[in-house]
Write a structure and sequence with these properties.
Shape: globular
CATH topology: Aminopeptidase
Number of strands: 6
CATH superfamily: Gcn5-related N-acetyltransferase (GNAT)
Strand order of the largest sheet: 1-2-3-4-5-6
Order of helices and strands: EEHHEEEHEH
Distance between the termini: 29 Å
């Protein structure tokens, strides 16, 4: 079965957009085959194992975009739901781009009741700056204060 049979998240939200796309946090609807299939070919998570994707979803607030029963997009928020959120793994299937799905995912994320009043939001992108600017994102105010550890080949032995 291709659908991940996870527990429903308490207080899940659904939002219908003008493009007949529904964005929801209902984990029972997420299609792990679609999500893993996209991420394992993405520039940011190339080669990611299916189990790693499933585990990352368990520990995040996830948003799925659906056209009927077909999953066409996804995004994941890593957050304490009080002060900080990191937006990750945002994608729209290639066949469904130019329909406003990324914008619908971001609108659902930014309006989610558990993510209101946060002090800081972050994300990383190579090519979607225009999308994220529409939601108030910009360059870090103090990039000299930010640090990271980056393993460029975490999924390759």
């Amino acid at each position: 079965m291709s659908r991940q049979a996870s527990e429903r998240e308490p207080g899940h939200t659904s939002k219908t957009t003008e493009a007949s796309i529904v964005v929801t946090t209902d984990r029972a609807r997420f299609d792990l085959d679609v999500i893993h299939g996209f991420l394992t070919r993405s520039y940011w998570a190339e080669g990611i194992p299916r189990e790693t994707v499933a585990r990352s979803m368990e520990h995040s607030l996830c948003f799925g975009a659906f056209d009927g029963d077909r999953q066409v997009g996804f995004a994941r928020v890593i957050s304490d739901r009080t002060t900080y959120a990191y937006i990750s793994d945002v994608f729209t299937l290639e066949s469904d781009r130019k329909r406003g799905i990324g914008k619908s995912l971001m609108a659902a994320i930014m309006s989610h009741p558990e993510l209101q009043g946060l002090r800081r939001w972050t994300l990383a992108t190579r090519d979607a700056h225009g999308l994220y600017r529409q939601f108030g994102f910009g360059a870090p105010a103090h990039p000299d204060r930010q640090m990271e550890i980056l393993d460029r080949t975490p999924y390759h032995a």
